[in-house]
Input
Amino acid sequence: MIIRILVFICAMIFLIETNYFRTHQEKMYFGMPMKHPENVKTTSKIWMIILALMTILALVAAFTMNLVIIFTTLILGCILELLMAISVSSILLKP
Output
């Protein structure tokens, strides 16, 4: 039961991040000025789609309680969050 709740929380985190990227396609990230608006818009769309798919995968994992899907969701989530942080910070720090 606790695993199901934790996976639902993971899905909610993915959903919140998806919504953030959906709403910030034209806005600044974290209040930092946009130096490359085309790159920000493209990156936002890409991460919005990826995180929406991760939200769906996490919800499937929570409902089915299949350990393979749960582990896959968590491992993919960790890797994708790292890649997201690297890609967004590289856009923000690009001169």
About this structure: The radius of gyration is 15 Å. The longest helix spans residues 37-64.
